[in-house]
Design goal:
Layout: H1 3-11, E1 36-40, H2 45-50, H3 56-70, E2 78-81, H4 95-112, E3 116-120, H5 122-129, H6 135-138, E4 143-145, E5 148-153, H7 156-161, H8 163-173, H9 176-181
Parallel strand pairs: 1-2, 1-3, 3-5
Antiparallel strand pairs: 4-5
Helix pairs in contact: 1-4, 3-8
Bound molecules: iron/sulfur cluster (SF4).
The site of iron/sulfur cluster has 14 residues, from α4.
Protein name: Type-4 uracil-DNA glycosylase
InterPro entries: UDG_Type-4/5, Ura-DNA_glyco_family4, Uracil-DNA_glycosylase-like, Uracil-DNA_glycosylase-like_sf
GO molecular function: 4 iron, 4 sulfur cluster binding; metal ion binding; uracil DNA N-glycosylase activity
């Protein structure tokens, strides 16, 4: 599925039950040549209302992080979420919902081909790295996958309410300019997750210790 097909299909998608809890599909936004690709968990109330990713207080925090730590305006990064529809009652998306929505995320990654993918929070970190550890255990490390760096970090939501976590997020984002300026990783490693079925069970290779 190419990007245009994915976008068109997603707007009317009923692949999973989240079609019943959404007002609007929040596909994602940003330039198709973005070097930085940011993936959150799921749309929330504000995103569902506006049809745009990373709204409300979380979006304002992300905007500040991008501008102050990376030197990028929001419009210069591609922003999206693991699932494109708001789960009910503020819950996290279930594995089956993440898997149902995965083809859209893969189409976005294929089309944009970013150098750095920031995976925000545990679910995004696990889905994009295939690793089982929490984001707090592997945060701030650059994991080479498919010729890109996947960079797990904490969720914006967590950072909003915990100053210590916010400081960690600022620290992680401050590493992104160096990563964006680096050559793409030469290590070839596929995502090692099925495109539509469940997440990989096997542990991945150890992290690249010398990157940071
Ligand atoms: S979350 Fe994704 S797979 Fe589920 S209905 Fe929405 S667009 Fe389709």
């Amino acid at each position: 599925m190419d990007f245009a097909e994915a976008q068109k299909e997603a707007l009317g998608c009923k692949r999973c039950g989240l079609c019943n809890s959404r007002t609007r599909v929040v596909f994602g936004e940003g330039p198709l040549n973005a070097g930085l690709f940011v993936v959150g968990e799921a749309p929330g109330f504000n995103e569902d209302r506006d049809g745009k990713p990373f709204g409300g207080a979380s979006g304002m925090l992300l905007d500040r992080l991008l501008l102050r730590s990376v030197g990028l305006a929001r419009e210069e990064a591609y922003l999206t979420t693991l699932v494109k529809c708001k789960p009910p009652e503020g819950r996290s998306p279930k594995p089956a919902e993440i898997n149902a929505c995965r083809p859209y995320l893969l189409a976005q990654l294929d089309a944009i081909d970013p150098k750095v993918v920031v995976a925000m929070g545990d679910l995004a970190s696990r889905a994009l790295t295939g690793r089982k550890e929490s984001a707090s255990r592997i945060r701030g490390r650059a994991i080479p996958l498919d010729g890109r760096y996947v960079f797990p970090t904490l969720s914006l939501q967590r950072a909003l309410y915990t100053p210590a976590d916010r400081a960690l997020l600022v620290s992680d984002f401050s590493r992104l300019p160096e990563l964006l300026a680096a050559e793409r990783p030469t290590t070839y490693e596929t995502l090692n997750v099925p495109r539509v079925a469940g997440l990989a069970e096997a542990e991945r290779e150890p992290l690249q210790p010398g990157l940071w």
